[in-house]
Amino acid sequence: ISLRAIRLRGDSMAEIAALRGRQISAREEENRSIVDNGVVGIFILDMDRKILFANNAAFNIFSADNDEMGGLPFSRFVTESTDQTSTAVYNAVGVTMQDAQLYLDIQYNEWDTLNGVRRITAIVRNVTAEVGAVEELAVIKQRYDMALAGSQIGVFELDLTTGASVTSDTWRKIMKIGPDEEDTQGVFMDRIHPDDLPRLFEADRRCIDGEADRSLTEYRMKFGETWRWMRSDAVITERLDDGTATRMVGTQSDVTALHHSRNALEESEKRFRTVLEAAPVGMAILDRNGNFTSVNASMMELTGYDDAEMLNNFSLARVLPKEDIENIRAAITALIKSRVHEIYRAEHRVLRKDGGERWGLFNITWTYDKNAGAYVYIAQVNDITDQKKLDQIKSEFVSTVSHELRTPLTSIKGALGLINMSAKDKLPASALRLIEIARTNADRLTDIVNDILDLEKISSGDVEFNVRSIDMRTIVDAAMTEMMPFAVTHQNRLVIEQPAETVYVNADRGRMMQVLANLISNACKYSFENTDVKIKIEEHEDVAIVYIQNTGPGVPDSFKSRIFQAFSQADGSDTRAKGGTGLGLNITRQIIWRQGGEIGFESKPDGPTVFWFTCPLATRVNGPELNDEIVARNMSQRRLKVLHLEDDEDFAEVLRAGLSPFADVTNVTRLNGMREVLDDGPYDVIILDWTVPDGDAADVLEEIGAVQPKARIVGLSSDAARKKDSRVTAHLVKSQTEMAHIIECVTDLAKEAS
């Protein structure tokens, strides 16, 4: 029985041992499975820290195959770091089989095997990605801190439960609080202006209670003896489930400069409004649609509307003619597109509420309103109605002078010329000298009248320019020939330098001759004796340039800025010493400008002075250039028959005396009288003064063509601005035409008629 019991016990023990073995094997398999499939690397090291075992995660961390790490020292892959802070996420660095750097978190554990052999288990976690993220966050935080510091924006965080606050370094810098101060909230409350505190509390309360998305407030903060303006902008970042706010985060910035700028802007706007209201000229602001948004009293007085009317969707088109509005819109649009910020300036009629009209000089500028996303227009309007009336009176006066003064001057010059021609051998030398003095002064007075009338008509745009393609060389040659006697009297030589090829320009031949005569005569008058006056032509890009150079005392520095102004001369004594009115250069500049050119000068004291002007080159040649000079021809043997319409009997008598050797002249003073004798022809030449008491001579041109078809018609008038008519063979201006030239013109045309 004992043996049987012992055997049974032995069998039981064997079964227990087998079961325990199976359990141990299963546990080992389970542990191995856990180790092999773990997400962290596991190494088993001997006491020399050589690798005995590594799991799959370890192979993956170090990019190694299963058979590459066994037996290698652990230090081949891992170097422990001893200088890390307590907040570091890694305590060792490693390298892969390919020498790529790793950041690692390692934990060690020593243990003994069943055989008593000491082993080390190293659990390795790869934190490279975490370290990269931390470093990236650190860089972002550094940039954020730099941005806040650079923009002077402080950040604060307030625990609404405990009342504790956390502030950034920039916030402390703005508040001038040291880093050791812990109770920043207490300092803040002590320094805020007591009058501003209720407003801050109310803004915070509304934000905390959810009535507002944010707490935005401006308040004063004390700094020593001064107060500075601060602005805070805070939001609730945490709330409990019941909606109770627990944390507030916000920013604070110093806006003192902004407040001062705002105050200055408000003061400036106030002054602007005051100036706008008190300005003696009409001032208004208009929106993109041309509607008035602001007007002053002068503008209302000019238009006759009150502010209630003008500020109620009232457009500029209500007070200006339609065509003027279109012109303004087109001009300003072109200026804006060209990005040339010029002021639009023009005269326009103003249509008043009462049906009347006034004239306004409009100055319009514009600025872009970024808030509205459109241009705003500022208009200044000067009431020039009275000036317009004065201009009308002046124009009428000029017209009167043109008719009443030019004609007597021409009569005087013609009479003196006839006396000189017919009686110069019969009169004593003293009488001839007096006649010469009278002729010289009559010429001078004629030049003055011509200059004044030219200035008026060119300035007002009443003169029509006959611009055509002409060769600049022929104009310069003609001007040089004409001015040669003048140069000789001033002991100068005219020297010309011009290209061999033609230089075609777009210009009015007569006006260009006037320009050259003015510049050459000035060069002669203000040059040293026995010196050359040089005229040079050259082409540059799309213009021809003409230079007139002399050698003389030069233009004084004090006079250079006024040299092109009307009635300007360097010295008051020049009027008598040199002659002239001081209008020549002003007229010259206006003629050049009207033809699309420029004019200027350079001068050195006691040296050369050069006046230059440009003229646009012609793109094409119009054909043969007309020669305005009337060449004298042999007079016909028969006596000519001339009909002269002229209401100035003195001038008519002078002309009749000049033509008497070879023509019979019939003089009439009215259009009706002309119609009565028109059938008494045939007439060789009919001379017309355009303006007579009973009408305009242009009204009888058709009758002349019907009754006297072979007669040549000559316009001889004081009206230099008269538009040319194809039915009129020659247009002569009394004050600009010598009597001898008139006679040559008549005889030449008479021969053509025959």
From TrEMBL:
Instruction: Provide the catalytic activity annotation.
Output: ATP + protein L-histidine = ADP + protein N-phospho-L-histidine
GO CC entries: plasma membrane
Which GO terms label this protein's molecular function in UniProt? histidine phosphotransfer kinase activity; phosphorelay sensor kinase activity
What residue ranges carry the coiled-coil annotation? none
Where the record annotates domain PAC, the positions are: 344-396
For this UniProt record, the keywords arranged alphabetically read as follows:
Kinase, Membrane, Phosphoprotein, Transferase, Two-component regulatory system
Q: Where is the PAS domain?
A: 27-71, 268-339
Q: What is its EC number?
A: 2.7.13.3
Return the protein name: histidine kinase
